[in-house]
Amino acid sequence: MKKKTAVYPGTFDPITFGHIDIVDRACYLFDHVIIAIAENPSKQPLFSVEERKDMIRESTRSIENVEVDAFEGLLVEYATLRNAVAIIRGLRAVTDFEYELQMALMNRNLRDKIATVFLMPHEEYIYLNSSIVKEVASFGEDVSRLVPEIVVRKLKETYSPGTHHSTRRL
Ligand code: ADP
After folding, report:
1. Three-class DSSP category at 40
2. Which residues neighbour 33 within 8 Å (Cβ) at sequence distance 6 or greater?
3. Where do runs of H (alpha helix) occur along 7-65?
4. CB within 8 A of 3, min separation 6: which ones?
5. How many angstroms separate the CA atoms of 108 and 119, rounded?
6. Is 19 among the residues known to form the active site?
């Protein structure tokens, strides 16, 4: 039987336990899961694509059928190129829903054969996102319950005393 590949796209700036929860679930459903970093020129990520790739690789090392990649341009183009049958998205609170529905329907209009599959994370991660992790870490608070060890380390390096970042909201 043909192997089924799914693409899990996102910014992953940085990867959190919420993302990993979704990856775990996707890997259970599909033979091959590609975590694909979307290189979006309009976003200004904290970490470079290479740094994000390293953090994702390190934190998904124990999962066999995962690949880490990056892409530019249209997601459905990339998914087609990689012979993916599905796009994975994580659904958290209702706030995700409208935007995700719009994206999923547009992607289906563009490529009818590629399905968007929504997966719900464990309740523990329902309000977790990368931005909140960065804000909390920027104040020197402990984020080890929210992100893998390598990310904790990278955030500490980035926000060590003396560095200034202007993304603070809290
Ligand atoms: P975006 O693609 O909006 O930049 P991310 O890169 O953070 O967002 O997330 C990529 C995907 O992972 C999205 O489908 C997002 O809904 C999902 N996701 C992010 N954080 C979580 C979480 N805590 N639980 C479940 N899914 C999540």
Report:
1. coil
2. 5, 6, 7, 8, 23, 26, 27, 65, 66, 67, 88
3. 17-29, 49-59
4. 31, 32
5. 17
6. yes
Catalytic residue among 25, 32, 53, 130, which?
130
15: tokens are 């990867």
Q: Of 43, 145, 164, 169, which one is the catalytic site residue?
A: 43
| pLDDT for 13 beyond 60 | yes
Q: Nearest to residue 53, comparing CAs of 62, 66, 43, 64?
A: 66
Domain extents in the chain: 5-126
Q: pLDDT tens, 61-82?
A: 999 999 999 999 999 999 999 9
Is this prediction's pTM over 0.90? yes
Q: Which residues pair with 118 in a beta bridge?
A: 89
Distance between CA atoms of residues 131 and 11, nearest Å: 11
Contact 16, 130 (CB under 8 A): yes
43 given a catalytic annotation: yes
Does residue 116 have its Cβ closer than 6 Å to ligand 1? no
CATH code that applies to domain 5-126: 3.40.50.620
- Nearest to 52, CA basis, from 164, 166, 148, 120: 148
